[in-house]
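Format notes (please read before filing issues)

Several people have asked whether sequences and structure tokens are stored in separate files. They are not. Every record keeps both together, in the order shown below: the sequence lines, then the token lines. Line labels are part of the format and must not be stripped during preprocessing.
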Amino acid sequence: MSNSSLLKTAVLAGSLLFGTAGATVGEEADARKILGSMTEYVSSLDALSFDFEEYHEIVTTDGERLGLAASGSVALVRPDKIRVLRRTGYTDTDLAFDGQTLSLTDSDAGLFARHALPGTLDHLIDTLRDDFAKPLPAADLLTGGGHGGLTAPTAEIKDLGVGVVSGMLCDHLALRGEEADWQIWVAQGDTPYPCMFIITSRNIPLAPQYRIEVHKWQAGPVEADFAPEKPAAATEVALADYLKGARNLPPNFIVEVEK
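Then the structure lines:
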């Protein structure tokens, strides 16, 4: 038997022996306690910042699962200020909100938009998701889980033990909702921040995933301009025109519209 066959046999044997992790009542209580500690900690912070690596999978019409990678940073001051920088390789975007006005810049497309939107961060997150179908990256991490399902009722929750993310010891939790599976790695210790977060969409063929890995987590004062000026090279447009012209996919991707 070749080394390749041995490897395939070992992988198959491992998959047969590794069943779904069960959860006793005590284990579920521990998992919910860990999740609660994370949400309480993140929600209690007046200001925070972090860098992130993002990986977003899409499924093509011929059944191929592809991943799009991005990097970015977040600076947040409660209750109503945030700035999110995101770089994808095909576009650089900048979202800023100062409690009164949402400012958006797409430097590659040369677009800039201002939109009056007085309110809190929660209002901003809800409006972007519900009115414009533009979920804010890492919204669940920013609010402690209240906007995407982490704190919603789930069919089950499991404590999968300890994992390591970027050298940080983390408690690994798995949650199952009606349409998606969630995994989250929560830093152990006095600062239980989310180190990594994965959503698996079960109702989409091939179950694509969305993942964010957090780096350089910082609780405390942040330095950021939450009301940036329009870049000299950008054209100011209405928010609807900005969203229409902003690139969500690389330029060589073709979006097919269902008829």
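For reference, the curators noted about this record: The two ends are 52 Å apart (CA to CA). Residues 24-245 form a domain with the outer membrane lipoprotein receptor (LolB), chain A fold (CATH 2.50.20.10).
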